[in-house]
Amino acid sequence: MIFNGDDAWYQIDRIFEIKRNLAHGVFMPFMYTFTFGQIAFPLGIFYPQITISVISVITFFFKNAVTGVYAGIAFFTLITLIITYYTLRKLGKSSSSAYVGAILYAFATYRTVDAFSRFAMGEYLAMTFLPLCFYGLYAILSGKNKDWPYLAIGFSFILLSHVLTAFIIAIVLCIILIFNLILQDDRIRKFQYLMTAGVATICSSAIFLFPFIEQRLFQAYNIPTPTNLAKNAQTFSGMVTSALENSVQKNLVASYSVGLTSIIIIILGAIFFKNLKSFEKLSYIIATVVFIFSSALFPWSLLQSTPVMVIQYTFRLLAIPTLLYAVVGAGLFDLFLNSYDKISRRNFVVFIMVLIGILSCWYSSMQKLATESQYVAAPAMTNDGNISNGTMYTDQYTPKHATKFLNDFIKHVAIIDNKKVTLKKIKPSANQLAFTDKKVKNAEKIDLPVAYYKNYVAYRNGKRIQVKKSTRGSMLVESKGKGAITIRYKYSVIDFLGAILSVLTWVGFVVWFVRAKIRKNVID
Q1: Does 215 reside within a domain?
Q2: Membrane protein 6-pyruvoyl-tetrahydropterin synthase-related domain: which residues (predicted)?
């Protein structure tokens, strides 16, 4: 069974578009031709696809498509566990408390919401690397200068997963940074390392950023799915109620929230606040402030006409308290164990009971979700690997001038000899789309049902032909010859430079990490 999350078909089509391109040897498909209505939609340029490509690769190893997708989701849960455990150990947590913190985060209610209720794969994947990002910032601000690459690595992976999550995290990190620079000393050193991390982030993310910026500068686009932040903000009472019920659903009486385990941490954190370490206290404060601000208690109407409006839904901020409450939870677990005699058997029993409690809450939420008919996709989606080929949200990355003609593009309406013609014979292949109707083959001038983008080129009989921008904002091709028309995405110099720069930067990160491990082993 597949859960019919908010973005299920959209994300699944992304996964299988990439899979089909990989099967033909195309690693970075910028033009999506098998899915999204077969309108040569350039989603690969505007929506990061590096991390979700891993799920596409995993699906090759499974006979059933849906099984492969969920195996990919499980894989990133494992990676989340490893990364969170590693960063908590870097923060000085004991092995047992690091395990608890990792499980608190990996099986948190909001991560479950992203994976199943919303099927928001971009945000779900981005949350995998959030611990690295926050640890990197902490390392710089606390004087652990050699660990600055963690900020760049974490933020790069977030950016290569989901742009809106990266934007939200950037805002929160900047606010934390401003407060720190005001209240603490050594500002120049901190600023230098932050700038270094920033440059490294740009370089490592260039494989996505360069093509993205190139298209954005080429022509105007509408804001993707603009919403009223204040109107869509959830009530604080609704969020608390949903958390107490450990709900992963959203309807007239339920809201997306942080879950029961986070509420328990909020209560215990307040009781034992004085006993927490300084970083845990700061995590508790930041998490609680962001949790409150993600609700309707914050005057979101004041930010409606600012760049912040692009976040669409204020509950996206819940990714931050989800992580930070897990950090606090790990600290509370350490406090609890240290308050007893160090009897390993007793500590082990307590450890197991805590893990069972966390996983039981998660399992209970999933059971409730599985019984809700609105979240069960069958028979709308099956395990046969077929794409849904939906066209919803294709307006998001269609050029502003062409959006009013988008319905014509979706219906494959071309203009030949000043007459509208609905094309029937459309052949998709890796990173290209062929139009083989007889009228297309015989025409010399065709206004194709494909929006005009930079680096989109057309071929006839293997030869490149002239392309102009039509009055519809579409591709207008002219050729005196006869034959089918094939459009492709031609990777530009900027695309190649971005890819090369990213590869070199990531090689540098690997070298840094290996040298750091060797240096640590020598010291130990």
Answers
A1: yes
A2: 51-379
